[in-house]
Structures are given as structure tokens and as C-alpha cells.
Design brief:
Structural class: alpha+beta
Radius of gyration: 25 Å
Strand content: 15-25%
Shape: elongated
Number of helices: 12
Largest sheet: 8 strands, antiparallel
Helix content: 10-25%
Number of strands: 20
Length: 434
Amino acid sequence: MRLLLTERLEFQEFFDSQTPKYAILSHRWTGNEVSFQDFDRCKEEQRPSFDKISNCCSLAKNNGYEWVWIDTCCIDKKSSAELSEAINSMYAWYKKADVCYVYLVNVSWSGDWETTRDEFRDSAWFTRGWTLQELLAPEDVLFFDFHWRFIGKKDVSSANGTSLNPHISDVTGISENDLEYKDWNPPESQCVAKKLSWLSRRNTTRIEDMAYCMLGLCDVNMPLLYGEGEKAFLRLQSEIIKKSDDESIFAWFCDKEGRSLSFMSGLIAPSPRCFAESGQIFTELAMHRKQPYSQINKGLAYAIPRPGNWTRKESTEGDHYSLRLECHISSSDMDFQLGWVVIDLIFYERSWRRLQISSKPVILAESTLWDSVTAEEGCFFETIYFPEIYVSYIEDLKERLLHRFRIPEGQIRTRPSGEKYEIRSLDQQKGVAV
């Protein structure tokens, strides 16, 4: 870990237990940040872009810290090995920091919370993927405005006695309870669905970083492969599945754009946006499944208990089942306080698919009778397979047919489930099923 000396603005590397106490900076990158390679030249020339670094060092020094870590200049991004190590270690670095300074470049503190509140809540800092771990990992998080004037603290009262947590919670979708730092219940211990729901409303400049910024929160490590695009998020989920049996990873309900449309897919979510409705989901230790699931060359192998926690539904499309996941959902909008999360499955084109037909989670009351026989009570398990990723949207498929075959919309007939189309104008006898 490379730290910056606040007194003389010089770098020094430390390893593991040798690392001294340090402050850490969280900020939104602009287009003229000072890199490790440019540091000495910008320092010597006193460029305006260097002001953020020097002001952060001055603040840390005044607060009694000899060392500070700033992501823009403390990582040699020309070295792919160092960059990979830094990204895989970053959550731990923020967590071990004595204090985290959040610099909000588009907020000007007037001394009156009422006049500053909207600027604070509208800050782009709350929309960035990388700042999620920077908000949650450190115990002490202090917010400063453009002129480095203190606004307030996470968890504690702000300068005028008003807690920042309600405003942070409203903007981020993270509950006030989850914002409070607890050694016995840290953010990384929350269920997968809840953690990914915190990311669902954020963005990163590089698509891959939507996965890489969650490595620490999800407690996994993986190599960085810039250029892989959305596959990075699939890889993140694969790494989670390798070390966790938390079924909430399958409790997602929107498509990759955050839309709530009818679609078929595999069990793995294509994007963090899919978890936008999953913030109220949680699991308990006793709920962890007894049979493993894993990814193989046929896709995701999932053991279904029979009889057990799934039930068949009548459907004109063939085998159609509801599967109860081993996770709960709690919401004030429900008629009951606690419920099971349920997903629908359908056998389609020689393999299993997840069928999403609702814009909200399908919820089963905790008290509902369900044939939940466990393995010890005599049930057997049948392994079924899901493709890694397969999504078919009704409207997208319809548009594709209209464009490809140049036929009027009225000549496309939809089957009852809305999942298949038949083009009668091409073959009056058989039609063409797509």
C-alpha cells in the first residue's frame, strides 16, 4: 500500500502490519486528476488540479494524521498488477482507514442545512459505483463541501445537530440501520441481493467496474479483464456462488435496464439493475440450503427437492413451477410482516428458464402451508440446469420480427403466455415459430 506523507507530500510503501494509521479520501473523479506519474510535476508547478491533494493533506495533518491515501495518485495505474491488487484490496483499505474524508465538489455549505440540503442530496458522489464501498466500509465518514468546509458525519449529527443518515438513506436506498457501522454486523455480511440492490441505482464509467467495485462488499477476489463488458458481472456472481449458498443471489426481478417487463432468463442476473426491487430481502443462517448448486458447462446446476420447496402450476405452456427461495422479504407495503421470495420456472426449448411475469417480487406469506420436506425427512433431489444467461423480451422479440420480415403487426399472433410468436403470413399451413 502506497501512502502519501502529509508533511512533505512524499510517497512511501507499506505492507500489512507495518501500515501506520492513515486518513483516506473519497471523491468523484474529474477530467484533470493528478496521476502517480504526474504527481511530482504537478506538485512542482502548483497546478490547480493539485489543490485537492494538498487540501486533503492539510486537513489530515491538522487532524493529527501523518499519512493519507488518495486513489488518483497512490496507485500506479500503468502497472496492471498493481491496479488489480489495489482494486481487490480497496474495500479493506477503506475499512482500515482511521477516517474517510468525502469531498463533494458540487456542494457549497452555507452554514444552514436547509439551504444546503438539496445540493447535498443531488451530489453526483451518491450515484457512482466506486463510492458505495467508500460510504459503507469506513467507521468514520466526514463530509466536506467544495471549499473543504465540514458538513457533517455519517452515523452522527451534522454541524447543526441534524443527522445526515436520513438524507443519505433517501438518496442511496440504503436503510439507516445498514448505514450504521457495527462490528458484529458489517455491510459485507448482508445478503447478496440487498448488497446488489445498493449498487442498482449507481453507475461507473467502465461497464466492468460495476462488478469490480463490489469485490470487497461481496468478499470475493477475481482478476480484472477490462474489455469483457457485462460478462464481468456474470463472473462476479459466479465467484459468489463458488463460496456462498446464499440463495438471495437469485432474488432479482427487473431486466438489465431496470425495467419490469415479462421475460425469460437463466437464474443469473445480467445486470445490477435487476436487483432494484431487492433491498428488503434478507437471509438467516438456518435458511442455508443443504444441497449445493454450482456452475458447470451446461449452465447452473440446481438441486430441487422433491417433494420440497417448489409446486406445480397449471399452464398452457407446459411444465410451470414456483420455486421458494431460501430468503425472506420484509416490507411495509405487504399485508403480512414477513414473506418468502418465490420465482417461477418454466421448461422451454429443452431446458429450464426463469419466467418473470410480475413487476414486483412474488411473495408467499411466512405462515402459508408449503410442502417443505427436508432431505432428512425423506425427500430426494433432482438436479435441473439453467443456461448461464438467456433473456427474451416480449416487445423486443416482436420488434425484431416486424423489422426482419417486414410484415404488418396484425399478422403476428401471440400465444396466451406472450412468450412465442407465429408468423402466419409466411406459411399458412405450419407458420414459422420464433
